Amino acid sequence: MNQSHVSCRDMYECSCPELDQLVDICLQSGAVGSRLTGAGWGGCTVSMVPNDKLDSFLSNVRESYYKTDARRAALETQSLFVTKPGGGAAVLLEV
């Protein structure tokens, strides 16, 4: 994930300073991987965080990224959330 973000930022130039800052904050807050996702250029990040670090991760990201800017703070509740990976795509074959 981390190398993917570096590639998007450096080779494809589809990141922006705010996304780079958020990825750095996520990694410093306990994520084992973090990268931009979606369209880039002000889009979103996705981070892999161990369950035992989740509470402190959310708190640190909230304080370090969202609470430092009034515009970001207004978007926090719809922007900072937890999800779990799903099973992914599957092909069902009838027999």
UniProtKB/TrEMBL annotation:
Tell whether Transferase is among the UniProt keywords.
yes
InterPro entries given for it? GHMP_kinase_C_dom (IPR013750), GHMP_kinase_C_sf (IPR036554)
Which of UniProt's keywords are assigned here? ATP-binding, Kinase, Nucleotide-binding, Transferase
Per the record, the GO terms for biological process are: galactose metabolic process
Q: Where is the GHMP kinase C-terminal domain?
A: 1-66
Gene Ontology molecular function, alphabetical: ATP binding; galactokinase activity
* Any one Gene Ontology cellular component term annotated for this protein: cytosol
Q: What is this protein called?
A: N-acetylgalactosamine kinase
